[in-house]
């Protein structure tokens, strides 16, 4: 009973282990080209001044490139739900880490207690 | 039971039901490690965000001392190495020994080019007194907040370069195993797991490049 089940599972996994988990060479080459274009775009936008939008634009391009790497080169696009969850949770933790740190430092000056005399003490 | 195990030689560890489950466990374990790495680098990115918002002009001026052309070339080299790495993983899935070996070495060579360019950049910073410490000088003056930028530059790119050295070591080891025929049988996922690590190192650089090299370019 269990032997038959195992045979079936092993055979099944072999049958789709080459097609179910990764893209073809065409997808890899397209992502490679997109990443190079993204790098050129990063440099190009950095030469121009968009005021307060400079950093958000740079980060938006970097996040797009990072998403391409994670989905295609790291095969998450073809991975199971639990791998999606693991990859996403890394991003969630990072947002918590950076979000709380930045919101702390950015709002300290709003407090009376953090006035200049105390700061220079 | 013994048939399904016997068919895969030693590739299927006895505590897994089948190769699929084993592969899933390998992938999940690697991602759990990468999440800790995200937070490892995340702390440095947090420090960067705080100090850059405190001293925006000093950070922009200090950033303009970096060579954005060399940084851009290195970005392209690293993306190229990710591409050759994904081809090595592809070859491993098809169990083509010599292709695995070749693409792994292409990745190692591109990684070495990256580290070589990094050495040239570090050497230039050393010569121009831009390494934080008692000899630090920024435009002839003992630097103030510019030193913070360079402290972050060296710790972030240094930690990144250290990851690349580890990664290259792993790839050299895997290339030897490939020649020994270790990846000829199904269920050997080591090349794929090393690929996840290598791509992660590429990911970090994708953020480091604009944040360190390009932030003052428009001035």
Describe the structure.
The complex is a heterodimer of chains A (121) and B (219). With 121 residues, chain A is mainly α. Chain A folds into 2 domains: 56 residues; 43 residues. Helices cover 74% and strands 0% of the residues of chain A. Chain A contains 5 helices and no strands. Chain A is flat. The N terminus of chain A is likely disordered. With 219 residues, chain B is an all-alpha fold. Chain B has a single domain, classed as Cytochrome c oxidase, subunit III, four-helix bundle (Four Helix Bundle (Hemerythrin (Met), subunit A)). Chain B is 75% helix and 0% strand. Chain B is built from 7 helices and no strands. The longest helix of chain B has 36 residues. Chain B is elongated, with a radius of gyration of 21 Å. The N terminus of chain B is likely disordered. Classes of the chains: A mainly alpha (121), B mainly alpha (219).
